[in-house]
Design a protein that fits this description.
Blueprint (H helix, E strand, L loop, with lengths): L8 H15 L4 E12 L5 E8 L6 E9 L1 H15 L8 E11 L3 E9 L1 H21 L17 E6 L4 H11 L8 E6 L7 H13 L7 E5 L14 H8 L5 E4 L8 H5 L2 E2 L3 H91 L4 H43 L2 H6 L4 E4 L2 E2 L11 E6 L2 E6 L6
Parallel strand pairs: 3-5, 6-7, 6-8, 8-9, 9-10
Antiparallel strand pairs: 1-2, 1-4, 2-3, 4-5, 11-12, 11-13, 13-14
Helix pairs in contact: 2-3, 4-8, 8-9
């Protein structure tokens, strides 16, 4: 075959261009995903749009797109204001364009407009899909279930070192009016742009490697536009925060915008300064709790002391009559015992005398022996009876002394004699050194009098 009827490559390109112009005579609305985007120094914006297969996520169509500088200067601010996002890779867009075919550069789309409402819908859809996925995996509220330490002293911070928000946070924390001392350490990360999500997760990994050194993780980012918040809606970042073993407090710097990161964190504050105030408030609350507990304890001690003093007074009033009664009972028992002893002695003597008379009457030969023998027996019995009487008297005397000692030990006067004293300051009992100052006069009441002294110094 000769090349007489063959078309040149340029002619083929021209036919393709003419066919495209016939098929797409004006502008077309085209849906695609930005796979690459680059802004030239001249101001032109170059994109690569793709359409992916939903079954395997592989591209099934691809085309170059161009937004010329003059058009891009109008499209860019309008799109970012409407969506709160920058044009970036991975974003789905609806673009108005002309379909061009150049003999050298091939097929391209000349973009003249972008519909932000389409992208907004896709962003919100992806955001909701992220939320639903976190809920389905059961991790949405995991970080919220962690218990915030009573005193979150050791704070790991993820932020940009140059961010004004970090400086505000650090100043607010370290210069708090209460003098609380915090241990803070900055783990630097990129806080906006395509790399922000990955950078923050890497910083979290560094904190996790030394997890026992920290009480709480703070993620802060001050100021900036809504455009910079896209990274905080990412699934990977939200999933890492939700399952992080430390309570996470966020202060991303936007009151009206709640990101997915804010939703999964333990506590969300509006700004970095608000995060610092929140942490300081934990210490204030703890201190107030301790003060209240101390006051309650002091009141309880006072109540117990008053109750015990009243009980001691009641016991004392009951004890004195009891001691007197016991003493009287012991004396009565002693008198009865003495009377019975005398009667026993008399009966024994009478019996022995009678017996002796009978023995003497029976035999005179052994009278002296019998008398001596009976006399010895009699002496022995007298000693035994006297010993029994003395033992009974000693026992009753010991009981009487015991009851008297117990009565004296419980006497409030004797309590003072044991070394205790009462201190009076300005007419009131002094219970705490806080109400007395150097130079004040105090009275010390002892068992045998009182002392008046002047305070030279005091210490807690």
């Amino acid at each position: 075959m000769s090349g007489k009827n063959a078309l040149s490559l340029f002619e083929v390109s021209q036919k393709i261009s003419n066919a495209l112009q016939d098929e797409f005579p004006g502008t077309q609305w085209v849906i695609g995903e930005i796979s690459e985007i680059k802004q030239n120094v001249s101001g032109h914006c170059y994109l690569e749009l793709v359409e992916k297969d939903t079954s395997n996520d592989y591209p099934k169509a691809k085309a170059r797109g161009t937004i010329w500088a003059r058009t891009y200067r109008m499209i860019k601010p309008y799109f970012e204001t409407a969506t709160g996002r920058r044009l970036q890779a991975g974003m789905k867009v609806l673009v108005q364009c002309t379909v061009n075919y150049h003999p050298v550069y091939g097929l391209s789309l000349n973009i003249v407009d972008i519909d932000p409402t389409f992208t907004l819908g896709d962003i919100e859809l992806m955001r909701q899909q992220t939320i639903n996925k976190l809920i389905a995996e059961g991790v949405m509220d995991m970080n919220k279930e962690l218990e915030l330490p009573l005193l979150p002293k050791n704070i790991a911070i993820i932020s940009s070192p140059t961010a004004a928000g970090f400086e505000d946070f650090a100043n607010q924390l370290t210069q708090n009016p209460y003098g609380y001392v915090f241990n803070i350490k900055l783990f630097t990360a990129t806080m906006q742009g395509d790399k922000a999500e990955e950078s923050i997760i890497m910083a979290m990994d560094r904190i996790y490697s030394d997890i026992t050194s920290w009480d709480v993780l703070v993620i802060i980012r001050g100021g900036g536009s809504q455009v910079d918040l896209g990274c905080f809606d990412g699934y990977n970042l939200a999933n890492n925060i939700a399952q992080f073993p430390l309570p996470v407090v966020t202060g991303i710097g936007h009151e009206k915008d709640v990101t997915v990161t804010d939703m999964v964190a333990h506590t969300r504050q509006k700004t970095p300064t608000a995060v610092a105030e929140f942490l300081i408030a934990q210490f204030v609350n703890a201190e107030n709790w301790l003060i209240e507990a101390n006051d309650n304890f002091t009141d309880a001690v006072k109540l117990v002391t008053v109750s015990n003093v009243q009980a001691l007074s009641r016991y004392s009033s009951r004890l004195f009559p009891a001691v007197i009664k016991v003493t009287q009972l012991a004396n009565s028992q002693l008198q009865r015992g003495t009377h019975k002893g005398h009667e026993a002695i008399n009966k024994t003597i009478a019996y022995r005398n009678t017996f002796l008379q009978r023995v003497l009457s029976k035999t005179e030969t052994h009278a002296e022996v019998k008398i001596n023998r009976q006399q010895g027996v009699l002496n022995q019995m007298q000693k035994q009876v006297k010993a029994d009487i003395n033992s009974l008297l000693q026992k009753e005397n010991r009981n009487t002394i015991y009851y008297e000692k117990n009565a004296k030990a419980l006497d409030p006067i004797n309590i003072l004699k044991r070394g205790f004293s009462i201190t009076i300051h300005k007419g009131k009992v002094l219970k705490s050194s806080d109400v007395a100052n150097a130079g004040d006069k105090i009275e010390t009441i002892l068992a045998n009098g009182k002392l008046v002294s002047t305070i030279e110094d005091k210490s807690n």
